[in-house]
Design goal:
It is a single chain. The protein is α+β, with helices and mostly antiparallel strands and 327 residues long. The chain folds into 2 domains: 85 residues, no CATH class; 194 residues, Jelly Rolls. The chain is 30% helix and 19% strand. It has 10 helices and 13 strands. A 4-stranded antiparallel β-sheet has the order 4-13-6-9. Strands 5-12-7-8 form a 4-stranded antiparallel β-sheet. Helix 5 crosses helix 7 and helix 7 packs across helix 8. The longest helix is centred in the middle third of the chain and has 23 residues. The radius of gyration is 24 Å and the shape is globular. InterPro entries: cNMP-bd_dom, cNMP-bd_dom_sf, RmlC-like_jellyroll.
């Protein structure tokens, strides 16, 4: 039936669980990826999307030393003269078939599936995600995307700002504009639906030990130009995923993370490659969008002298690249 009752199960969930990385076994065997405490869950995406068990990137095990979320009566000798030797943990295990019968869960599933159906084509069309992730990972990522609408000519990020995630254009347009010495601006690159910027920052350039290079720890990626929305009166809608969220989703899957980092490095090495989205969209009949005409002239001048522009994955080109790239 489609009732909402849960027969009283799951009221006493407590304890902590360690998810230990197992890929590859040495030297990272037993490394704790995350500790799950009261209210946390795992395996829910598999029940929603029907993922293969082979996609699991970690082993879940009870932490025998954790007492933070344990019942005080079980661990406090003042309340219980014979406390349990190990606090243990209590789980609420729900079969996927039973879970999908609940009305509330069915609403969540349908909402997530609708979001995946709407945003998977966007992710499939982005070269970085198409090369570095598989179809199931892009479905998971679609659930984490957040859409934001910006006003005409509003700045998404200013020159010198740290790049903390990736932006993808859903509706409208965005432009990278570099500031010239002595004032004025120069158009560098344009982004239309299906384009994006900042992808390299998802997997490296965080200024951490994982970004070590020959010269030491690599600095954080920063915007080399101001990323500004176009002049469409309806504004510009961008989908965003932060690098922290992205790392939580994929960093502990060693093979996937290594592939993503390699893809990011390859994309940064192709900064001189011309991309189709660099060229402004044709002027629509009756569209008084002066920015497109200015951008077209700037693109023609740039193509003539071989400078400017960038790859489609967030790397700037020439001496004035407008999107994040390694220092």
């Amino acid at each position: 039936d489609d009732d909402d009752d849960d027969d009283g199960e799951g009221d006493g969930v407590h304890g902590a669980f360690e998810r230990a990385a197992r890929d590859p076994p040495p030297p990272n065997a037993g490394e704790v990826a995350v500790t799950l405490r009261r209210g946390a869950c795992f395996g829910e995406l598999e029940k929603i999307f029907g993922a293969s068990p082979n996609l699991r990137a970690a082993v879940v095990a009870v932490d025998p030393n954790d007492r933070e979320d344990s019942n005080p009566r079980d661990v406090n000798p003042d309340l219980n003269p014979k406390p349990a030797a190990k606090p243990g943990a209590v789980l609420w295990a729900v079969d996927g078939r039973v879970l999908r019968r609940k009305k509330a869960f069915k609403a969540v599933v349908e909402s997530m599936r609708a979001q995946v159906a709407a945003w998977r084509p966007l992710l499939d069309g982005v070269a970085f995600f198409a090369d570095a992730t598989d179809a199931m990972q892009r479905s998971f990522l679609a659930c984490a995307l957040r859409a934001t609408t910006f006003r005409p000519r509003e700045a998404v990020a200013k020159e010198g700002d740290e790049c903390a995630g990736a932006w993808m254009v859903m509706e409208g347009e965005a432009h990278a504009v570099a500031t010239l010495v002595g004032g004025g601006e120069r158009w560098v690159a344009g982004y239309w639906p299906g384009d994006g910027f900042g992808f390299n920052s998802l997997v490296w350039g965080h200024g951490t030990s994982g970004d070590e290079t020959e010269g030491g720890v690599e600095g954080c990626l920063a915007f080399e130009a101001t990323m500004r929305c176009g002049e469409d009166v309806d504004g510009t809608e961008l989908a965003y995923v932060g690098r922290v969220t992205f790392a939580r989703m994929f960093e502990k899957s060693t093979r996937s993370w290594r592939r993503m980092r390699a893809t990011a490095r390859e994309s940064a090495a192709r900064v001189a490659e011309t991309r189709e989205s660099k060229r402004p969209a044709p002027l629509r009949p009756g569209d008084p969008n002066i920015a497109r005409m200015i951008a077209a002239m700037a693109a023609a001048a740039t193509d003539g002298n071989g400078g400017g522009g960038g790859d489609g994955n967030g790397g700037g080109g020439g001496n004035g690249g407008g999107t994040p790239r390694p220092p």
